[in-house]
Amino acid sequence: MNIKTNNPEKNELAITALYEVMDPEIDLNIVDLGLVYETDFKEESNDVIVIMTLTTRFCPMGESIVESATQAMQQSFPEDKIQVKLSFEPPWDQSMISEAGQSFLNT
Amino acid sequence: MIVAGTNSAIKNTSYKVVLPFYGYAALSFLIATILILTNTTAFTQHYFNPPTLAITHTMALGWGTMIILGASHQLFPVMIEGKLHSNLLAYLSFVFAAIGIPLLVFAFYEFNMGVVAMIGAILINLSVISYLANLWLSIYHSKSRNVHAVFAFTSVLYLFMTTLLGLLLVWNFSTNVLSQSSIDFLSLHAHLGIIGWFLLMIIGVGSRLIPMFLISKYENQKRLWLVYVLINLGLISFIIMFFLSVKVELYFIPIVLIGLSVILFGNHIYWSYTKRIRKKVDEQVKISILSVALTIVPVIVLIAIIIMFATVSSSQLVMLYGFTIFFGWITTIILGMTFKTLPFIVWNRVYSRIAGLGKTPNPKELFNNKIFIMNGVVYLVGFIIFGLGIVLTNVLLLNIGAVFLLITAVLYNFNVFKILFHKAKLNEYKNK
Questions:
Q1: Which of A63, A70, A107 sits opposite B12 (nearest CB)?
Q2: Contact at 8 Å (CB) between B323 and B382?
Q3: Looking at the domain that runs over A4-106, which CATH code has it been given?
Q4: Is the ipTM of this structure higher than 0.90?
Q5: Number of C-alpha atoms within 13 angstroms, CB side, residue B380?
Q6: Which first-to-last residue range defines the signal peptide (chain B) (predicted)?
Q7: Is the pTM of this model over 0.95?
Q8: Is the dihedral of CA B13, B17, B22, B25 positive or negative?
Q9: Which residues does chain B have within 8 Å of residue A104's beta carbon, measured at their own beta carbons?
Q10: Per-residue pLDDT tens for B310-339?
């Protein structure tokens, strides 16, 4: 798991929140699945930007995953404006799954 | 890092477009099994008879084609990594087919190939044209070109050739528009549909989805291109041989080419399965993999037909061939893939806007898994008994098999409509 951030302390809280967001098809959280790329905390504007990906473009579950991530972040950062943005650079592949995720899928 | 600022890559095809196809297909399957149960003796006769024609077209168009059209409107964006061009064209595709199919089936059942049959056939062609235009425009506006999309688009071209020839065959019953009788063109019409439409589309979609569901590390685009070339060579050589009226033994050439492509595709799925990261494979994917294995059965029956035709004509083997295709291979993949796609489409419709506000059910909980498993068992029993009934021309076995197939359709419809009418259960889950 290698999530880029500009605020390690808040990033811990963000990751804890995003652990609760599941990919409904795989039944694994989006952090262990390797979908979360970056968190960006803008102190001056209270904006929190999460940059994440999907296992494939136009993933049929994409809308609900992004919505869940937004809701989870909003509950952890109620005073901030949350933006969840998608990036497909680099595209997701299986090597991005964490060890815990690999272990879950292997059982 | 390039960021998609508007999150445009999550805008999916409207569920309103997709869901009617699933409901329609489920009801068509039910109607087909009722027609089978009430016409079992038709399966002891020559395959060209009104009930068999009506059942075949209910299965090929109402069941197989409608569900593939529905699912592909949803999945095509994943394959081409671009939006579906038009929801309106998708609606039109549904409406034209939904009216046209029962008209054509009714005309076959009554064997009145007049105006009703013509209108039915014209509407089905309009549906295919709408679908073809939608796919073409979607691909045109997409930046991604890949083997799966090429499979899918080529298959729709063959579907159009199939339905266009079908229209000419219907017309030919009342006016001589073709050089020969409509019956002489049946094998061409059938194989354009079976190989060109169903086989290409199922391999195109299956080669993308099955490894995706397994989270497989295996990828072999070259092999899939080879499969694509072999199927097209097989089908084109078959078309040429058909018009040249060659010796029946020469038909081994397209059979070997297509049989080889099926073996290569089966091997592709085998390696995807072996190199999967996700060890626990759910029943829906297992059934889909079983259908890949079942693809070889019609090929074996076809080889038997060629050998038999060289010695003695066997109408029952031709009947068995059609049965193993529509009730074996195509039905198996639909029974599996319906419950791997439909629950997620409905789940997304019901829960996407309220996702994250509380605990939601898993998409797999939208249908009854026990009924799903029972469905698979009843289906396999029905398929085997009915198949034996065809080979042995035994009406008792045909009746028993038909009852099992009808139960399969009832159980399938129960689960499909349970999913389609699912209402949000957020609060219930919130309190757990």
A1: A63
A2: no
A3: 3.30.300.130
A4: no
A5: 10
A6: none
A7: no
A8: negative
A9: none
A10: 554 477 888 888 999 999 889 998 998 899
